[in-house]
Design brief:
The complex is a heterodimer.
Chain A: H1 2-46, H2 48-57, H3 59-92, H4 98-104, H5 107-110, H6 113-124, H7 138-163, H8 166-174, H9 179-208, H10 214-217, H11 227-236, H12 240-271
Helix pairs in contact in A: 1-12, 2-12, 3-7, 3-9, 6-7, 7-9, 8-9, 9-12, 11-12
Chain B: H1 2-25, E1 40-47, H2 51-62, E2 70-77, H3 79-87, E3 94-96, H4 100-108, E4 124-134, H5 145-148, E5 155-156, H6 167-179, H7 184-196, E6 198-200, H8 205-213, E7 219-223, H9 224-232, E8 238-240, E9 244-254, H10 261-269, H11 272-280, E10 310-312, H12 314-318, H13 321-329, H14 335-345
Parallel strand pairs in B: 1-2, 1-3, 5-6, 5-7, 9-10
Antiparallel strand pairs in B: 3-9, 4-7, 4-8, 4-9
Helix pairs in contact in B: 2-11, 3-4, 6-7, 7-14
The chains are: A mainly alpha, B alpha/beta.
Chain lengths: ~270, ~350
């Protein structure tokens, strides 16, 4: 009797609390994300359709968008493999310096991007101590993207992997499955949502990257100029509409890719 | 080790920037009517380069009767960004920008009187010239503008599309060709050849200097004052002042709603004492008769600002900043914009 009363009252409090929670979440989200994004799109539309179209089909801008998106895809693909591998090593292996590596992974998050740019320039620029000079080539863009997006897949996969019950894998092995089959059929399916989430984050981050590559990439039109630099140029010319137009194209691309990754992830999970 | 030190410096810089940015933001101009004894805070908003000089001038200003009770809140960053921030409401009593168009933006917004450029120096508070920064000992023997377009010479310049300040470099390149007797088509061809040798177009002057000091390129198109300041900070490279070059003129203005003390400040900035502080940090004085003694970091500290044989100016060679903006830097049609786009397609 008492228990029933308590649980009933709990439900009502929770209802209120979660209603409040939802409200706060929505206001917070609107203030920080929805309203600014809407403002970008409204600004983009102010110049009219022709102006919008002319802006994004400008040869130099189109080349910058192409470069940014291709590299973001490339880097995301690399991250899916390397990130999962690093997460695996961190969770399943025991080795000296593991704790240190664990901490170091987050450095690209912690470092201001312009500092990352400086570090990349001194390591992979003309004065490279290891003899690798990618300055002012498209490889500089790849490198900067790889650097800033490294932690995403690692950090999304790692906790899921740590929670996996090794007994299931042992059972599979005792039933005669090879290590590869065990990984493919048992481990991977549980990791796919995490990998997908990491991939989406990493793509979105790469598309918007600016700070870490400006020193190393040289911003050469048609070669190493990324979209953020084009947006900056428009702003410098007080052409806010053009800047917003290019920005909304990036938004649209990022949004489609995130949706695409989500759909793919659901499909893969269902199939397995 | 050096790299690591650099990263820490950059980290520190980023931190300071953040702090100054926040500091500049949080209070509106007090609007106090400023009787003599009442303490006054002036908000200075400027582009990054003259920060050190402005700090030195502020110290001297505080020693005078007018400046005794004045304290400063300052915000420094990219010229265009700073100007847009003031247009959007960042509190400012005095602004100091790289190019005139950043002040005219505020005139258009009704924040600065349209008479701002009527004074003796036509609104200009600091000036410098375009120079070539080269590696120590000048291994490529770069002396003239013609040396820049020789095959194999690698040039670094900030990007005129995204950095208002970088436009001085592009104008210097074009203007010196005209000065040398070239037709407009020939001058355009010269600038095209020059950009064909550009290996890096960083977004701002500071980024360009960093990229150059990090080993990129043989020549950096830079300003004399930046070169001198970098020398003062222990960086090692040489700089060459070409026979024909461009006078860089940085405007400063007091806002309409500014505290009356802001005008005293501007007067002091334009006084011999104020200009001396600019000179010590590498800027050429905008008035005659400033005594600054030796300027450390200059090629010859005793004669830090040698006279340039052919000095190009916006007024004499390019009509006005508005006219040249449209002609050279229009986003679609500008001569320089088109050249930069073409330079990428060739390869």
């Amino acid at each position: 009797m008492t228990a029933a009363v308590v649980s009933a009252s709990r439900v009502t409090t929770l209802g209120k609390a979660s209603g409040l929670g939802l409200g706060v979440a929505m206001i917070w989200f609107s203030l920080l994300v929805l309203i600014p994004l809407a403002a970008v799109i409204v600004t983009a539309s102010q110049g009219g359709w022709t102006a919008f179209w002319n802006t994004i089909t400008n040869e130099q801008t189109a080349a910058a968008i192409r470069l940014t998106v291709t590299h973001a895809f490339l880097v995301t693909a690399v991250n899916v493999v390397m990130g999962t591998l690093i997460a695996w090593v961190l969770v399943r292996d025991q080795f000296k310096g593991q704790r240190i590596l664990e901490v170091l992974i987050d450095i690209p998050f912690a470092l201001p991007t312009i500092v990352a740019g400086l570090v990349l320039l001194s390591l992979y620029g003309p004065n490279s101590p290891i003899g690798v000079d990618v300055a002012n080539t498209p490889r500089a863009v790849t490198l900067a993207f790889l650097f800033v997006t490294l932690p995403f897949v690692v950090r999304t996969v790692q906790p899921v992997l740590a929670e996996l019950d090794p007994e299931v894998e042992e059972a599979a092995a005792s039933l005669g499955a090879s290590r590869f089959t065990t990984f493919r059929r048992i481990v991977l399916p549980s990791l796919i949502p995490a990998i997908a989430a990491g991939a989406a984050l990493s793509f979105a981050r790469a598309v918007s990257e600016y700070g870490s590559l400006v020193l190393l990439s040289g911003n050469l039109p048609f070669q190493t100029e990324v979209t953020s630099v084009r947006i900056l140029s428009s702003i410098e010319n007080d052409n806010v509409e053009a800047a917003a137009a290019v920005a909304s194209v990036l938004l649209l691309i990022s949004f489609s890719v995130i949706v695409l990754i989500d759909v793919l992830q659901r499909f893969l999970v269902k199939r397995d | 080790m050096r790299n690591r030190t650099r990263s820490f410096i950059a980290l520190g810089l980023a931190g300071t920037l953040l702090l100054t940015a926040c500091g500049g933001d949080d209070s509106g101009s007090e609007g106090s009517s400023g009787t003599e004894s009442e303490p006054v805070t002036l908000n200075i908003v400027g582009f990054a380069v003259p920060e050190a000089a402005n700090v030195a001038i502020a110290e001297e200003f505080n020693k005078t009767d007018e400046g005794a009770n004045v304290s400063f809140k300052s915000s420094y960053g990219a010229s265009g960004d700073q100007s847009r921030a003031v247009a959007e409401g960042l509190a400012a009593d005095y602004v100091h920008f790289s190019v005139a168009s950043d002040v005219t933006r505020l005139v258009d917004e009704g924040l600065v009187a349209d008479t701002w450029a009527d004074g003796d120096t036509k609104g200009i508070v600091s000036s410098s010239v375009v120079v070539f920064a080269v590696r120590e000992g000048n291994p490529e023997n770069i002396q003239t503008w013609d040396d820049l377009v020789k095959p194999g010479v690698e040039i670094v310049t900030p990007n005129p599309a995204s950095s208002g300040a970088a436009r001085w470099n592009a104008l210097a390149a074009y203007g010196q060709a005209i000065e040398g007797g070239a037709t407009e088509a020939e001058a355009t061809q010269y600038v095209t050849d020059l950009f064909a040798n550009v290996v890096s177009l960083p977004s701002s002057g500071r980024d360009a200097t960093t990229a150059f000091l990090g080993g990129t390129g043989d020549v950096l198109l830079a300003y004399e004052n930046e070169a001198i300041l970098a020398h003062q900070n222990g960086e090692e490279f040489d700089y060459i002042i070409p026979e024909t070059t461009m006078l860089i003129e940085n405007p400063g203005a007091v806002l309409i709603d500014a505290d009356p003390k802001a005008q005293d400040w501007l007067d002091f900035v334009l006084s011999k004492e104020g200009q001396k502080q600019f000179a010590l940090k590498g800027f050429r004085p905008v008035i005659e008769g400033v005594e600054y003694g030796d300027v450390e970091g200059a090629n010859e500290p005793a004669d830090p600002f040698p006279e340039v044989t052919n000095l190009l100016t916006v007024e004499d060679d390019f009509e006005s900043w508005d006219a040249l903006s449209a002609k050279f830097f229009d986003e679609e049609e500008g001569i320089i914009t088109v050249i930069i786009a073409e330079s990428g397609k060739g390869e």
